[in-house]
Amino acid sequence: MISLEQQILQFVITGITIGSIYGLIGLGFSIIYNSTEIINFAQGEFVMLGGLITVTGIQVLHLPLPFAAILAVIMVAVIGIVMDLFAIRPLKDASAITLIIITIGASIFIRGVSSFVWGKEPYTIPAFSGEEPIPFFGAVIQPQSLWVLFITIVIVVGLKQFFDRTLTGKAMIACAFQPRAASLVGIDVSYMVLLSFGLSGAVGAAAGIVIAPMSMTQYDMGVMLGLKGFCAAIIGGLGYPWGAVVGGLALGILESLGAGLISSGYKDAIAFTILLLMLFFRPQGLLGKTKGDRV
Amino acid sequence: MEPLLITEKLTKDFGGVRALDNLDLEVREGLIQSVIGPNGAGKTTLFNVISGVIPATSGVVRFNGEIITGLPPHRISNMGTTRTFQNLQLFCDMTVLENVMVGMHMRSAGGFFSSSFRLPWIVAEERRIRDRSIEWLQLVGLEMESEKIAGSLPFGRQRILELARALATDPRLLMLDEPAAGLNLKETQDLAGLIKRISKLDITILLVEHDMDLVMEVSDHVSVMDQGRKIAEGDPETIRNDEAVLKAYLGEE
Amino acid sequence: MTKSRLFRLAGIILPMALVIVLAAAPAYAHEEYKIGAIFASTGPASMLGLPEKNTVMMLEEALNAAGGIGGKKVEIIFYNTEADPTKTVTAVKKLIKKDKVEIIIGPTTSGTTLAIIDIIEKEKVPLISAAASVRIIKPVKPYVFKTPQTDVMAVEKIYERLQKNGIKRVAIITVANGFGDSGRNQLKILASKYGLTVVADERFGKKDTDMTVQLTKIKGTNAQAIISWDTNPGPAVIAKNRKALGIKIPLYNSHGVASKKFIELSGGAAEGTYLPAGKLLVVDQLTKNDPQRKVLTDYKNSYESKFGGSANTFGGHAYDAFQIAVKAIQNLVDKKIHVNRDSIRDELENITGFVGTGGIFNFSAKDHNGLTKEGFVLVEIENGDWKLAE
Amino acid sequence: MTFRSLLRSPYTGFIFFAVLLLLIPLAVTNEYYLNVLIIIGINSIIVMGLDLLMGYTGQISLGHAAFYGIGAYISGVLSAKWGVPPLMGLLLALVGVSIIAFTVGNPTLRLHGHYLAMATLGFGIIVFIFFQELDFLTGGPSGLVGIEAMTLFGITFDSDRSYYYLVSIVMLIILLLSINLVNSRVGRALRAIHGSEIAANVLGVKISRYKNGIFVISALYAAVAGWLYAHYITFISPSSFGFMFSIKLVTMVVIGSLGSLWGAIFGAALLTSLPEFLTVVEDYETVAFGIILMSVMIFMPRGLLRGIEDLVIKIFARISDRSEVQEKINE
Question: Percent helix, strand, coil in chain C (nearest 5)?
């Protein structure tokens, strides 16, 4: 038996872990949205691919975990790029709805192919550094949770540096806000879009790899995770990359508190109710600023 | 007689930028009145605030004696004023005729239920809307293109169509936001004629325009704005020779 | 404008015409016994449905190679249900109306089975379902049979054990789908019969990635045992989270995890947990004179040599359904009774002492499952393998 | 002239279509095909409503399966638990759905683009969870059994043939109402909102009224479809009304052709019957589905119906061009 306080602490720890994953997935949404205004419904599939390719790397190619993980990140980045080349780029001036359907089509396609390559069974990979739980004020932390947090921080800091310090990163941000101006000053917009697909593939894959030891990985795991990631991106403020992480954490913590204190059956209903309230009362997201609307 | 439209100390801020600064303006019934001024003078903002598209920061707008500030656009239109847009806002996927028929929206009553079941009075109303809309198209000279998709018209014709659509609301006050922008000389001259014809239908016109020749040709009264303020007003001849106006324009160039 | 309106019309008429043409294709008389098979070979229940489909296809091939039934071949007509009720209904209608099958085996899930019961009863086609829920055969419907042990039996097997160990309070954690829901109901209904109280009733979604919250809540109660009810991978996550949270009370799983995959997924965390399972799992540990031993060994060997991987109990349910259907037809042929839907149905109720993978089936007019909870054994996971716990 | 206007009238197509629908059972003797057509009919009812919302008014909804489900569950639960006759069930379902749709639509439709998509998606998921969790009413995830077969005015529709006629007639009524609506003042207002909200607004169109109105109407269509579904299958479970089905509905609208009622019906027919054709490729079904979805959007972004139309027109144009060239050469 543990006390209510300890339980709540445990809920929060769990919330932070899951929230970081949602945040990473949301980050993938934000990166693509930022350079293209596309919501990529195949983002969840990137996560699934990250996990499954790592599994293959370890079990079939007998690579050590870090190499398998790097391989997976690179491969999924390439898949993201291929997706842009073959499914997104052929469309010029497509409407938002068309693009949504395209990415949904891509997600169904990727899922279908994955079910052939890996079958329908779930897989797992060993935890990065053992499974001995770490006691924490009566609650426990799984070592893998720390990995999740660590990887999230590394990616967030890395992306921030990339966007703030490098020319390419700055160019990508420019594309988001002023695509025409960007092309006028000589930025290759379509290259930046390509890059954003690759980058979000890589981030998605990383998310898939860090949770694989905790939650198993299966050809159809991407759907729900993708939705939650989308949710995180919206809660944080679409187009504000760090917003996705803040949104993810908020979503994760509220969801697990809701499940723990109210009802686990209604867990997702609680998460999505929060989302709706957020959209109704603060549609620009936690980090977003109200824009002056000009006509 | 009280003016048809009055703005009193009308102010609009965008963040730190003051687009309208305690603007007092009067539009008298039956006239063609123009608002001119350099880029960024706040002319389009003025239209947006009057038509209710964006809220005012402070001050009031009176139309026909009633305060309309804070009302949603459709309520303001319902009182008898409508506008066109500087960057066209046509319903591009609809036909020319259908665009004008939308303009008749306020002058008809069919609702979800009655329309779905096509009650007898709806059939009659539809016929009336159609006939009246064709009349408007004839007035502006677009009746031959009535079945074309609006988005497929040449730019100049689209401007005219937007005007026809606005006319179909049967307004007392019609606000035209740079109707000559993008038009060639011939088209602009046709437009001038059209504006005068519209004025003869007892429709008051408030015109924002950059094309000075057009303004000087059609206007009864001209107001000049700069940086959100009114700096001069009077008949075209007075404005042409006003020093403040010259300064505002020259200062810019 | 006019032209395009015409094309639009053509766009509607063409597909309709296509349907009509297809419909007009004559249904030819058949020379073989037609058995319809409907399993969820893709979709959320594909981990169950795929081995079921494989099994049935394998058996069809073997049977026909051996000459079929009384010289007539057997033809399996398979449709994928995707575990979707609407698709299942369509598939069943297709089997009945278009393919004109004698008997149908499947579907995979309880929900889809319940969805088609009305049609089955109306059209009077015998059905042998491979789904778990007791609602399928209780109350008895004339044409509906099923081969898996019911979830009632699985629950009773667990509760029996708990009662023996003197446990009074249990916490249950079930997945929010048909399988978990049915288990949850039985767990709650049967608890008092075994002197148990359910002190925590937690749920999770099929695609949830973490059950720490639910287990933390359970940890906050005075439960003496946890029972989890789901098919993979959920229970593996529960096993892992339980270990991570340092929960010491024993964990019982449903028969839904009865495949090696569960042990593989949970790593070490499944050690010392229990589950009720068909004997297929522990076939090498059965006593030499166990009546099912031969059937189970044969099935396991032939499945594994053909498809690789390991045979699981779900495939076993399909195996039983197929063999029972064949047995009924064979009996009719032997008795020289005309084989049709009604005679098969009647014959099914006569089948007794049939040794299958799930147990020994004794069908009757009152029992369309024909199994007892003895079809289950309680298995413990030890050293990464199954061990008979009895 | 009269012939042309006859062809141009939206009702000509309707009459042809109605005659065709009612004649089909004479040619189709196999009830399995009627079953497929019934499902197509039910789906087209929802998709028509969704098209009014998406294609005409330009408001996306990724949660329409929820209204379909609510319609099915209200009538289904009333029938299974208390023996309420289907007609009464329909009435209560319509009342219930309009209240829910109005309450939800009001704040939701103020949102635009992806935010609207996300909000409707969230709503759909919340409703789905309620179907699962209110198990004392809905039977939970394992489903609701015991829904009575459709009986209306003393007639029981218990064969596929009779049900086909019922669904066809309901569908035709809804199609007719929709044709009326889109060719009216209201329909123009809706399309105007799609074209430019601001312009519509300054022309006197009260945006919120029309957005909410059409949202409620499309929800009601879905509820009618749900009611037909519940009393046809006589079993419902939450899995039929989930997120994936909402997505499928949207793809039906888009693949068919946005902003065309015929496109909606075409899309529903195609995507409902596609799996029946794809059984040939069986295991590759999902892959094929994904490819079809993507290629239609890439090569015919205006949807199949318009895409085929454009294609045919282009071919005709080329043929006539060629013959003109030919004529010139001959000269």
Answer: 50, 15, 35
Q: Where in chain C is the domain with CATH 3.40.50.2300?
A: 32-150+293-375, 152-284
B106 to chain D, minimum CA–CA distance in Å?
6
User: Do A108 and D289 count as a contact with CB atoms less than 8 A apart?
Assistant: yes
CB contacts under 8 A, B 193-222 vs A, are none
The domain total for chain A is 1
Q: Which of D21, D235, D304 to mutate to test the interface with C (most CBs of C within 10 A)?
A: D235
On whether the CB atoms of residues A123 and A216 are closer than 8 A, the answer is yes
- The set of residues, in sequence order, having a beta carbon less than 8 Å from that of B18 and lying 6+ positions away, is B11, B12, B227, B228
Q: Does residue A78 lie within any of the structural domains?
A: yes
CATH number at residue A9: 1.10.3470
For residue A149, being part of any structural domain is answered with yes
Question: What mean pLDDT value characterizes chain B?
Answer: 87
Instruction: Report whether the peptide linkage leading into residue C233 is cis, meaning its omega lies within 30 degrees of zero.
Output: yes
Question: C2 pLDDT band (50/70/90 cuts)?
Answer: very low
Residues D103/D168, Cβ–Cβ less than 8 Å: no
Once rounded to an integer, what is the mean pLDDT over residues A141-154? 91
Each domain of chain D, given as residue ranges in start order, spans 12-299
Q: Does residue A256 belong to any structural domain of this protein?
A: yes
State the pairing for strand pair B173-177/B204-208. Answer: parallel
Tell me if A212 sits within 8 A of A54, measured CB to CB.
Answer: yes
> If you average pLDDT over residues D116-121, what whole number do you get?
89
At residue C45, the pLDDT reads 82
Longest CA–CA span in chain D (Å) reads 83
Phi and psi based region of residue C67 (left: phi greater than 0; alpha: psi -120 to 50; beta: remaining): left
* CATH number belonging to domain C152-284: 3.40.50.2300
In a domain, A26, yes or no: yes
**Interface with chain A: mutation pick from D127, D248, D298, D306, highest number of A CBs within 10 Å:** D298
Closest CA to A17 of A146, A207, A132: A146
> Which CATH code, of 1.20.1260, 1.10.10, 1.10.3470, 3.20.20, is assigned to D12-299?
1.10.3470
Q: Is residue A68 predicted with pLDDT exceeding 50?
A: yes
C348 contact partners, CB below 8 Å, separation of at least 6: C126, C128, C145, C324, C328, C363
Chains that touch B (3 or more CB pairs under 8 A): A, D
Instruction: Give residue B229's pLDDT.
Output: 86
- CATH numbers and ranges of domains, chain B: 1-80+171-253 (3.40.50.300), 94-170 (no CATH)
Q: Does an H or E element contain A176, and which?
A: helix A167-177
CATH topology for C32-150+293-375?
Answer: Rossmann fold (3.40.50)
